[in-house]
Amino acid sequence: MDGRFAELKKIPAEPAVRLLAGANAKLATKLPLPASASVPDVLAGLQAAGAQVDMLRLLSVALPGRERSWWACLAGRDVCAARGEEPPATLLAAEAWVYRPGEETLAAVQQALEAADADDDLTLCAMAALYAGGRLGAGDYAGMAAPPGGAAAAAFGVNVMALDRPDMALEDAAAALIDRALDIARGGSGRPRQKEES
After folding, report:
1. Which long-range contacts (CB under 8 A, 24 or more apart) does 167-171 make?
2. Residues 6+ apart with CB under 8 A from 7
3. Would you say residue 196 has pLDDT above 50?
4. Nearest alpha-carbon partner for 102 in 152, 139, 68, 77
5. pLDDT at 193 over 70
6. 171 pLDDT band (50/70/90 cuts)?
7. What does each C-alpha distance from 29 to 46, 47, 164, 185 come to in angstroms?
8. pTM for the predicted model, two decimal places
């Protein structure tokens, strides 16, 4: 297997197809792999096929909730930087929940989401955090199940938005987002390139 996909300790050992099915997600690329193929094996197959968007899709369902939310928040920061905008309250609340997950920070995410402007597309970051635990929210919503795959779809969506970067070709931007997710899956911060540059 490609070393790029080794030691992804945060990713479950379940077959990729099972994780995708649990999140109501499908890959556009058909691979000649058995149904029992692991996430690293499928990622390697997708890489060989040049299917970077499908790699992002698979990583969005394979990362655990908190790690997925952090990946979404980092992509949200990329979107803000590309637009020259300050992070909205939805992104800041999601980051606060990642740093200190709990009912209080989850309730703040929910409040930020409810108060968000209609044109705040970084509500996706808040949705990734809000649904990360499989619940619809905090308080009265805690006993209700989140939409299956809702957190993964939100994280995928914000990462797709982050592909549009003025300083980087599309393929390079996708590779950077994938590498970030892989770093998080190894237990890293998701900022391997920043460390190298500093």
Report:
1. 167/82, 171/52
2. 186
3. no
4. 139
5. no
6. very high
7. 7, 11, 22, 22
8. 0.93
